[in-house]
Amino acid sequence: LVERVDGHPVSRQPVAPASRQPTVTPMTHDTPIPVAAAILEDAGRILIARRGPGDPMAGRWELPGGKLEPGESPRDCLRRELQEELGIETAVGAFFGASLHRYDHVAIRLLAYRVRLVAGAIRPTVHDRCLWVPVHRLGEYDFCPADRPLVARLVHGAEGAAGLETAEARP
């Protein structure tokens, strides 16, 4: 099934690319939690973060980011989360894609954006490790399930990733 966020398709499994920032609606009991993720790239490397001890996903890697607060846009969320969790200032760019994943305890809609580092040195506060990884080596890391379709798109590109919509969605 394909759901829609602000006129853009959001696949339950593969990534659904789009060019506009989606609008996140208020949560209800059945509504997935909106989470923003950063694709922070530098010289062909992507920043990934490992969840720390005590987290239900401890030891797994993710694209850094976090949950949207009520009334917060995904872009504002990313700027806030990256400042709080990594100590860096960023510029949030184009919407990259989205994935929907239902964990045992919660469902999340992961909205990924291209992000550029503006200032600061990375100092993780909630993750136990951060790495800059060449794109072609991302598949060597154990990512959280919601991140996997986005990582696959980064590694294989839109042309090589089966099941991905590559054309810009029309409202």
Question: Please, could you describe this protein's structure?
Answer:
The strands form 2 sheets. Strands 3, 4, 5, 6, 7, 8 and 9 form a 7-stranded mixed beta sheet that branches. The model is unreliable at 1-29 and 159-171 (pLDDT under 50). It is built from 2 helices and 9 strands, in the order E-E-E-E-E-E-H-E-E-E-H. The protein is an alpha+beta fold. The chain has helices at 74-86, 148-160; strands at residues 2-5, 8-11, 33-42, 45-51, 61-62, 65-67, 89-102, 107-119, 127-134. A hairpin with a 2-residue loop joins strand 1 (2-5) and strand 2 (8-11).
Short synopsis of the structure:
This protein has 171 residues and is α+β, with helices and mostly antiparallel strands.
